[in-house]
Amino acid sequence: xxxxxxxxxxxxxxxxxxxxxxxxxxxxxxxxxxxxxxxxxxxxxxxxxxxxxxxxxxxxxxxxxxxxxxxxxxxxxxxxxxxxxxxxxxxxxxxxxxxxxxxxxxxxxxxxxxxxxxxxxxxxxxxxxxxxxxxxxxxxxxxxxxxxxxxxxxxxxxxxxxxxxxxxxxxxxxxxxxxxxxxxxxxxxxxxxxxxxxxxxxxxxxxxxxxxxxxxxxxxxxxxxxxxxxxxxxxxxxxxxxxxxxxxxxxxxxxxxxxxxxxxxxxxxxxxxxxxxxxxxxxxxxxxxxxxxxxxxxxxxxxxxxxxxxxxxxxxxxxxxxxxx
Length: 325
Ligand code: UT7
Prior knowledge:
4-stranded mixed beta sheet, 31% helix, 2 domains
């Protein structure tokens, strides 16, 4: 039997050149490198210059992914952008990226699941490819969180940053329908709106102004470890796997302590965890594709490797996914 699989054939990324270190932040808010490093693992982050938009970061990451997948933009019939920091309320920022790439066929739209956005977008793209209506997708996570943090709130402004990552997802036949296939193998998505007040932006069309990011950090931390841990345990048990079967764990990069706690809970060897939070901070929907591409670029992730990704974001939204590179 030969089945359709959505296979990632290339990845790419783009980071704004402006590096802001913890020491730089300590000059603006009441914080220290020691506090940020010990509580989060973050050492530096990238911040987009004024006038640089989420679509600019997303377009650059998409171009990099197209090049690395050896795919021409004209072959793309689906663009899904995960972002919580769109250029405008409408049209979608994916539309702008579509135009920037010179693509005039197929469709493009945004997915909003905050830090889980890339996981959601990849799942939606996989389902659209599996249904047979689309053949080649670009799935992007791009954010300019520097625009929605309150630069006077030391509890949040030191955590978030800007960047973009992307993958090319191609519908390919030849899968056997087993875990040995290349491509997306499993996805587990969850949300629970009862927690919407733990991590949110206090602005929008229903309020006055754009607003700022607000977070009950300690509560979010606890929910992240327990909800992500449960989602991964379900992913492993649904597929008859143990953490030993995972080649690379590419988590959402919110806080090194969350990554360590989740890895410990699922008994995963820490050498298999891809960590970029020290240099990227929390780039929300961009963090997973940025980390993924980092590990592809330096040769850690190789064809045939089994990859586990996970995230938790505002909502809460959360989940996990397994794919074979
Ligand atoms: O991606 C979406 C998901 N987001 C997350 O997963 C984030 C989850 N939460 C976290 O990562 C952590 O809760 C934080 C890193 C946000 C905070 O770490 P914490 O260990 O939970 O610290 P805390 O909020 O309990 O604050 C401890 C102390 C407080 O002072 P007092 O009340 O003990 O005197 C804060 O005022 O640290 C103080 N503080 C800071 N001090 C220096 C808070 N922010 C800072 C700062 N610099 N930037």
